[in-house]
Amino acid sequence: MIIKEYRVLLPLEVEEYQRGQLFSVAEASKQETGGGEGVEIIKQEPFTSNEIREGQTLSGIYAHKLYHLKSKMPWIVRKLLPESAMVLDEESWNCYPYCKTVLTNPGYMKKDFRITVETIHLQDDGSTENALNVSDEVLKQREVVVLDIYDDTHLNKKTDIRPETDPSLFLSQKTGRGPLAPDWSKTTKPVMCCYKLVTAYFKWTGFQGKIENFIHGSYPRLFTKFHRELWTWVDLWYDLTLEDIHKYEEETAEKLRKQRENGKVRGMSADGCVVNPLFEDKENFVD
């Protein structure tokens, strides 16, 4: 089991990010859905539970989705494994500013595959040592990875970098923020951080370490790409209320159904990394 905490810095207020996250998850889902693949929304409803986070009773929105990812898998995976191995089951609990997402593969790997993403959003510069209040045992295993949306190191240079989603070029007409400079997080306000604790578990003799490292190898690209888009789409979602965005999510669910049934295969391919549905958490696997 490999545990990493990704810290994503953004020029936003925490309250603003909530709207941006919901809008961008819906928008990114459309980009990755078509031709029988992509996002299938099974259920989305309010919840209250004391089983999501130990010692707390949380309320928010529960979502259950399936991710059909055949074309997103490396060719060797498509050749060796059945189609049931290429459908991921996602459950997420969005009780902002805390979110939790769990990805499994009940059709093939069952209890031998699990990715958990826990996220907390704080108005700081990514310097909080234990933002998610995890145990000392987890802290000893955890590796911290700081991601800055200005930095394109982790992106696919051919497919991920476009002028319209480049923070070094983008100027927001509605907030007056941007373009971002290399040291923006030290010289610009506001600054916030998404703390994402990702635990990857894959139990398969001879492959466990390689697959868990492969899973984590995809996250810097996925989180960076998603959050660059979230920021550079700010003028599209900035004036929307949560009610507006929830209506947009409902409309998107119907569009996704039609795109999966009739559209063409879209989005990131196995030429880069396995697509992680955004996340939540789309973000991302986005939370």
From TrEMBL:
Residue intervals of the Phosphatidylinositol transfer protein N-terminal domain: 1-253
Gene3D superfamilies in UniProt: 3.30.530.20
Molecular functions (GO terms): phosphatidylcholine binding; phosphatidylcholine transporter activity; phosphatidylinositol binding; phosphatidylinositol transfer activity
Alphabetized InterPro entries for the sequence: PI_transfer, PI_transfer_N, START-like_dom_sf
A cellular component annotation (GO) from this entry: cell periphery
Name used for this protein in its record: Phosphatidylinositol transfer protein
Biological source species: Panagrolaimus davidi
Lineage summary: Eukaryota, Metazoa, Ecdysozoa, Nematoda, Chromadorea
